[in-house]
Design brief:
mainly beta; five-stranded antiparallel β-sheet; 14 strands
Length: about 200
């Protein structure tokens, strides 16, 4: 039976050596010209919300700012898993951040988190010998109708180092098999909360 072609970005499913993902997230500020969807890989912008910045009545001064990541970006924080309500005219608003809109985004940012993601199967399919290699996301924009990411695993860009995501293995389910549009377990290679010591201390 063929795999269903239904990209939905990165979905947290567990943690390395620590059992299932427990839903722990942290709040970040996002306000630039890029839309952000549930399941998108996000990166730091290098700044934070200015003093006095309010989002739906909440003071977000100093809250770190993120935006959607592009392929090869390495200032990665984690994955967007939800947004604060807009609460405008009793309308809770969409469950994604539209371009140039200010939102509080909740991010799965534990660097030990394991995610499930569909491969794009462009050029080739990921095979058994690519487990342990790194690759990037194909950062296609998500759907403003479903609010869901369209990020996929780049199946033709695998290598030993430098990719955004490390391939851990096939997501083992009865509805998933190696081949076109397979779903894989991955971890973020360059999570910002991981400290790299380059010299002796």
């Amino acid at each position: 039976m063929a795999n269903v072609d239904r990209p939905n970005g990165l979905v947290p499913v567990g943690t390395q050596g620590s059992g299932p993902w427990n839903g722990q997230v942290n709040a970040y500020y996002t306000s630039d010209s890029s839309a952000v969807f549930i399941g998108d890989l996000v990166k730091l912008t290098g700044t934070s919300a200015a003093t006095g910045t309010m989002v739906n009545g909440q003071d977000v001064s100093g809250m770190p700012s993120v935006t959607v990541a592009a392929a090869t970006d390495i200032t990665l924080v984690g994955v967007a898993v939800g947004f604060s309500p807009l609460q405008t005219n009793q309308n809770l608003g969409s469950l994604h951040k539209a371009a140039s809109e200010s939102r509080i985004v909740y991010v799965s940012d534990d660097p030990r988190t394991i995610y499930e993601i569909q491969e794009d199967s462009t050029g080739n399919n990921i095979d058994k010998d690519m487990v342990g290699l790194s690759t990037d996301v194909v950062a296609t924009a998500g759907s403003s109708t479903t609010d869901i990411s369209a990020h996929e695993l780049d199946s033709s860009d695998t290598g030993t180092a430098g990719g955004q995501l490390r391939i851990l293995g096939l997501a083992r389910r009865v509805d998933n098999a190696m081949g076109a549009n397979a779903r894989w377990l991955v971890m973020i290679n360059f999570a910002e909360s991981v400290w790299t010591v380059t010299t002796d201390v």
